[in-house]
Write a structure and sequence with these properties.
EC 3.1.3.71, alpha/beta, 9 helices, 4-stranded mixed sheet, 2-phosphosulfolactate phosphatase activity, putative 2-phosphosulfolactate phosphatase, 236 residues, 5-stranded parallel sheet, hydrolase, magnesium ion binding
Length: 236
Amino acid sequence: MKQIDVCLTPDLLHLHTTENTIVVVADVFRATSCMVTAFAHGVASIIPVATIDECRVWQERGYLAAAERNARRVDGFELDNSPFTYMDDRIRGANIAMTTTNGTLAITRSRNAVKVLVGSFLNLDAIARYLKTEPYDVLVLCAGWKGRVNLEDTLFAGALVDRLKDGFAMAEDSAIMANRLYCDGKNNLVSYMANASHIRRLQRLGIQKDITYCLQHDLYDVVPVLRGTALVSMAV
């Protein structure tokens, strides 16, 4: 039987195997939610990079560039880390380079996997349906916050486990724990997360609408996958 496991932070990734495994990276607030939204609105590709300097190199090559640190846009870059930015017509057909505090780093660390997918609540059903068709184990990699565990990515992991548990064995306690947390809070995730650390960070920036948006389930039927250095949208 295929297995599903959860890595609660990229700093623990070395304890997990990515051999014969599809890694699903989740940075719910807000990198992977932005990526899913961007592909749903016609972006051609997104190059995730770990550093601001790498992002600037792609910007100099003519790419639209998005850079975020500590939940704020970095000066000198066109795009920020709000999903609403990626609903603009100017991004349709565009190639984007993106660096974020946690999400893009998690993606770049996962490149040895069979495949690397980008997950969020927004494309939860599409991700789950795709993984059911594949013969590989699954590892959900939570981007966390600067090496620490966070609630929102753990809840996404639990939601994906919940969608897949009939066809996948839960490999370790982290998968069981994430699933139980999600089942506890799934009826009202906004309320359940009210005191979470990243919720407080985003609320200080006055972007409650981003929080509410990113916790919506199954809005988009897209599955971003890493091909070489770039994410592209895969037909499902």
